[in-house]
Amino acid sequence: MNYIGAFVFRNQGNQSAGATFILLGFSEYPDLQVPLFFLFLTIYTISVVGNLGMIVIIRINPKLQTPMYFFLSHLSCVDFYYSTVVTPKLLENLVVEDRNISFTWCIMQFFFACICVVTETFMLAVMAYDHFVAVCNPLLYTVAMSQKLCCFLVASSYSWGIVCFLILTYFLLELSFIGNNIINNFVCEHAAIVAVSCSNPYISQIIILVTATFNEIRSLMIILISYAFIFITVMKMTSTGGHHKAFSTCVSHLTAITIFHGTIVFLYCVPNSKSSWLMVKMAFVFYTVAIPMLNPLIYSLRNKDVKTIIQKLIHAKLLCYKM
Known about the structure:
The chain has 323 residues and is mainly alpha-helical. It has helices spanning 2-11, 14-17, 33-60, 67-95, 103-136, 141-144, 147-172, 190-195, 202-236, 240-269, 277-302, 304-322, and strands spanning 20-23, 100-102, 180-183. The chain has a three-stranded mixed sheet with strand order 2-1-3. Helix 7 runs antiparallel to helix 9. The N and C termini lie far apart (47 Å).
């Protein structure tokens, strides 16, 4: 984190050095502060327990040492970091009057959030490719999805997230910020930071639009092509059992993709989506708080192997408790 702070300090302008931001959050609804605090605290608790639980279950169980669960453990890891980057500050701002955040800390929050979002975008694409190999080439699955390839795909997702952050931050730090700046959101996201700049934000806005659109098109192409081949393969299957197995393998992933990419398209790729900041805040609540909670629930409730292991662990705990 010291390196990130040094990077920000070296690149931000003299005027921006002393700038501070005020995360407005949901302060315009004073009567809802306490109910929202307990709601978001509950969601965050479920998210942390769900994602860390998913990681632990996958790591300790030999039956789940497959590429699909390897990717799923990293997806849970990304969701855990993402919710931890955003939600604690949101909870703090719901119970304190001082909602200030320094320029450096704001960029740091954007840093971690950007990496998590981009990484999850391509992690879902990688998982689509994994499903394609599993359904279309089951006999060659172990060979095709080698440990080396899996590690490369995961590392590439993280690396591209860092590249996107560096590109976006470079143009973000070219802007000037003076004094106290009110961010009409509960998180330091790109559009909200740009909106309070004293400089012309056109280039920075174009960069985020191009980057988000490129990432969406690139990842969705991988997903759509993978599932097109999966659909063709499933249609050629003669057994009902084969249809059911292929469907059960893909349904959880398709649900996660629909929720995640639907929200991203609304926030970054639809020009008129920023017309109402209340809608933007609600979308970001779903995007940054709810989705990290939903992913482990989707995969645990729809995945037979995970449900079986959870039931065995609960049964073992109950037996230990009775003894």
